[in-house]
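Box S1 | Example of a co-folding query
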Amino acid sequence: MRYAYDVASVRAAEQELMARLPDGTLMARAAAGLASVTAAILGQARGGVYGARVLLLVGVGDNGGDALYAGALLARRGAAVHAVLADPDRAHAAGLAALRGAGGRVAGPGDARTLAGRADLIMDGLLGIGGRGGLRGVFAELAEAAHAAVEATGAPIVAVDLPSGVDADTGEVAGLAIRAAVTVTFGTFKPGLLIDPAAGHAGIVELVDIGLDFPEARPVAEVLQESDVRALLPEPARLAQKYSRGVVGLAVGSERYPGAALLATGAALRSGVGAVRYDGPVEVVGTHPEVLLGDGRVQAWVVGSGLGQSEEARRRLSRVLESDVPVLVDADGLRLLPKESLKRSAPTLLTPHSGEAAALLGSSAEEVDSGRIQAVRALARDYDAAVLLKGPFSLIADPLAPGLRVNTHATAYLATAGSGDVLAGLAGGLLAGGLSALDAASVAAYLHGSAGLLAARSGPVAASDLVAALSAAWQNVAG
Ligand SMILES: NC(=O)C1=CN([C@@H]2O[C@H](COP(=O)(O)OP(=O)(O)OC[C@H]3O[C@@H](n4cnc5c(N)ncnc54)[C@H](OP(=O)(O)O)[C@@H]3O)[C@@H](O)[C@H]2O)[C@@H](O)CC1
Ligand SMILES: Nc1ncnc2c1ncn2[C@@H]1O[C@H](COP(=O)(O)OP(=O)(O)O)[C@@H](O)[C@H]1O
Ligand SMILES: [K+]
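Box S1 (continued) | Returned holo structure for NPW
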């Protein structure tokens, strides 16, 4: 598992550790890690550090200090390092002395555009965990100079700890924020590196261990790693028979949207269950001859994907919601009936995208996307259900779990029609296989992402390709 802690926990862990170490040790560790990642990037881009032109954007706090010390290390290896200071009177004094001592040079904001245009790499040390709100004043001018240069030259921006201007704790971006190619973060992931829209500013995240420990703190978010998913996969026992492995019922698809039924069924058949039962008007057996048809006992239902808005759709939905087994509600199922009907006593998993989440919350998709932690938590609380809020990095909340889960194992090729139907069939099957709603959602999001990554190796991905890649994705995880 990978965890993200909030700023208060990072500050507490830092204090605890600093009390036991000589002054400056943590910043030295951070700067060494930062310089080493930066050197590796320069090595890949241009064969080495020697002669590389590096521009440091330096704010008024320790984030700028990290950049200055790392700049000093790069200057000692032969890089031509310039630091542009947002406010010369408040820049980290010891860091500045180190940079100057190593042969680095210091410039004012007026030189930022020229220096950025010539740089092989720009290091963003404007704001770290002490930042509040979007970038303002000189900070904003420096970020704009960096973005303009990068657009013209393709040089990477390496963010120190966080892309400056994003909210470390919530992932919100209130105004201008740096868009980095790589973020080198210290001690732990921060929620803002995992939660969109901030996560979209971070690029690839490299974690540098500086010795911080979090024995008591509660993480804001956790990200399942492959080994976590492996431990949760329902593998058949030796004495398994099809009913003991679980049966998932699918009340999805309609004459208008037959594809949803075919895709969800294909995915459910590859979700580890013993059988899939389809209840609806779509002819699925021609494509999936294994499927059982009509009513019968199931261990979980999936309802909503491609259900349409007809009276018959409403009836199918209420029948499923009234059952006493776990139910995954997707797409049309989230909008068709009064909200109260989604509040059930058996486990329920809601899988909205931003627009569907907005409809449930009475807000707009833009509001959901600008405050995703708040939105997913509000849904989980209001509906007393596990909620998978889909998106580039999907969020999963459960009313009983203190932290959130985030799935980062994904590709933008998943943004294709029918992709959500595949996810629903897969997650529903995992529910029927005995996983909790939280685990079914997390494992499904991971496997769905894996299938997308595998399928994307051969080019653009159709939702049917995701179904076809699911078994290989499962096998890669299961080992
Ligand atoms: N914790 C750890 O374990 C370690 C931490 N380390 C490093 O320290 C970093 C945190 O340093 P930090 O606390 O000095 O804060 P930092 O983000 O540099 O600057 C904050 C200042 O900026 C200003 N400001 C704020 N918002 C603004 C805005 N929107 N636009 C413009 N200005 C704005 C504000 O000044 P004010 O406006 O209040 O005058 C505030 O005082 C951390 O991210 C990591 O890199 C590592 O060295 C090793 C171990
Ligand atoms: N940019 C993206 N990067 C990664 N995954 C994405 C992206 N956009 C969408 N997805 C994923 O693709 C799926 C789309 O589901 P959904 O919006 O229900 O689509 P549809 O209704 O067309 O099936 C979700 O799992 C979502 O998390
Ligand atoms: K930064």
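The first strand starts at residue 2 and ends at 4. The first helix runs from residue 7 to 18.
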